[in-house]
Amino acid sequence: MDGDATDGSSLDIAVVGAGIIGVITALGLLRAGHKVTVYEKADDYFEVGAAMSFTGVARECMERLNPCILEALQRVGEANRHPMNRYWDGFNPVSMDAAQSEESLLFEQSARELDYTGCLRSVYLREMAKSLPDGVVKFGMSLESYSEVAEGVELQFANNSTAQADAVIACDGIHSKARRLLLGDDSPASRPSFTHKVAYRAIIPIADSIAALGHDKANNQCAHMGPNAHALFFPVAQWTLSNVFIFLHDPKPWPDPHKMTLETKKSEVTSALSEWGPSIRELVRRMPEQVFKWAIFDMADHPADRYARGRVCLAGDAAHASSPFHGAGACMGVEDALVLVSVLEVALSMSKLSDLGKAEAVGAALQAYSTVRLERSQWLVQSSREMGDIYEWRYPPTGSDPAKIKAEIESRSRNLWDFDVGRMLAEAKMECEGRLKLGG
Ligand SMILES: Cc1cc2nc3c(=O)[nH]c(=O)nc-3n(C[C@H](O)[C@H](O)[C@H](O)COP(=O)(O)OP(=O)(O)OC[C@H]3O[C@@H](n4cnc5c(N)ncnc54)[C@H](O)[C@@H]3O)c2cc1C
Ligand SMILES: *[C@@H]1O[C@H](CO)[C@@H](O)[C@H](O)[C@H]1NC(C)=O
Ligand SMILES: *[C@@H]1O[C@H](CO)[C@@H](O)[C@H](O)[C@H]1NC(C)=O
């Protein structure tokens, strides 16, 4: 047997990255009784003000991982006030009246069926982190490299310190260093690529949003569609502010993949939407002159062919970074976390029953995780890209036909929501046991 320093009833696990998925994974592992250390590059929790929402499936996974994850979401999350998620025509209406009224409604879906809970990422991250015991997260630790040794995996950090663990779960985000190490620097999947969509984001007083959109739309989340662009608005901060996202299709290459955000002039948006309806034009007029522009990158062009090698694996955006058009990128990471906790439990109990080494058991567990998660998470990345085109009337099968768009969005969304978590875990367990029997 290889080095069993502990009593063998738990594992010592290193999580790389204290983003949403790293923290959720750590909370799940701690509840399962493992020893966990999270290594985070930044000096504090990374602040991205973006809003996010979680599906019913993701919330079920949270509950199973550790109820405190879901409780934190319930404390900071907000459900939409309106019972429907509504999709509007932002382009065709000619009068302000038509733009603000039901006349410009393309279609709607029950919000209950969508079953999303929204929150601000940074607020949720801090709320969850309160449940982590002191000392679990080590800040200022940027992973540089790792190597597998007999006793486990040795991690090397940028400040030359090292650490050891039985398994490494890397949740270091879209520009993951661990992905480059695991897949090799020459693998095309080691770097994300530009989706040819850019997002402009601003926060404006809700009064400005009401002036442009009317009371009904401004007080609920609403999506506007049109040619080569789409817009998402939703109230934040207890209905005092409005979060504005304008997405534009951008056929040009993005100049610098290392710098994905920049401050820019609003005139780019004004000219791109100059032929849109009066409501959207008025909203843009009320945005600040300087706006925040965000290049959207993902892994759709070059998906990873595996999420694990040896005793190291990738989870969350590190494994399958997605564009935000399904609003479910993080949900995939939550599902990853639950599968990981479950396969590590199977591996540990099997290694206790036999003289199987810990290294073998951990390796089989992480391989099982990779096998079970690849297809679904990569479908999301692909479908999310297409959703961006569907919203922007660029997807040939649906064009600008609201009935076809509605049917397409519904069938894709079903794949996300109507998902049997119990069955995924049963498959993961079977896959893991199969590998351990084969190996041992
Ligand atoms: C505009 C937008 C809207 C979105 N909306 C939604 C939504 O509504 N619903 C949804 O489910 N998802 C949404 N997403 C996706 C979601 O934000 C991501 O999937 C999620 O944040 C990924 O979490 P993560 O923990 O995997 O990665 P990250 O949040 O990127 O965290 C990675 C962490 O690792 C750290 N790190 C990086 N490198 C190293 C290193 N070498 N060593 C140590 N630490 C390191 C980073 O500092 C960071 O703290 C959206 C994304 C965008 C861009
Ligand atoms: C880490 O070690 C390398 C090589 O010994 C050295 O060049 C570098 O300055 C060290 N970095 C820090 C932060 O100590
Ligand atoms: C590296 O940084 C961490 C976190 O700040 C610190 O605990 C550790 O002592 C540092 N190691 C070295 C060798 O400087």
Automatic annotation (TrEMBL):
<keyword id="KW-0560">Oxidoreductase</keyword>
<dbReference type="GO" id="GO:0016491">
    <property type="term" value="F:oxidoreductase activity"/>
</dbReference>
<dbReference type="InterPro" id="IPR036188">
    <property type="entry name" value="FAD/NAD-bd_sf"/>
</dbReference>
<keyword id="KW-1133">Transmembrane helix</keyword>
<keyword id="KW-0285">Flavoprotein</keyword>
<keyword id="KW-0274">FAD</keyword>
<dbReference type="GO" id="GO:0071949">
    <property type="term" value="F:FAD binding"/>
</dbReference>
<protein>
    <submittedName>
        <fullName>Putative salicylate hydroxylase</fullName>
    </submittedName>
</protein>
<dbReference type="Pfam" id="PF01494">
    <property type="entry name" value="FAD_binding_3"/>
</dbReference>
<feature type="transmembrane region" description="Helical">
    <location>
        <begin position="13"/>
        <end position="32"/>
    </location>
</feature>
<keyword id="KW-0812">Transmembrane</keyword>
<keyword id="KW-0472">Membrane</keyword>
<feature type="domain" description="FAD-binding">
    <location>
        <begin position="12"/>
        <end position="382"/>
    </location>
</feature>
<dbReference type="GO" id="GO:0044550">
    <property type="term" value="P:secondary metabolite biosynthetic process"/>
</dbReference>
<dbReference type="InterPro" id="IPR051104">
    <property type="entry name" value="FAD_monoxygenase"/>
</dbReference>
<dbReference type="InterPro" id="IPR002938">
    <property type="entry name" value="FAD-bd"/>
</dbReference>
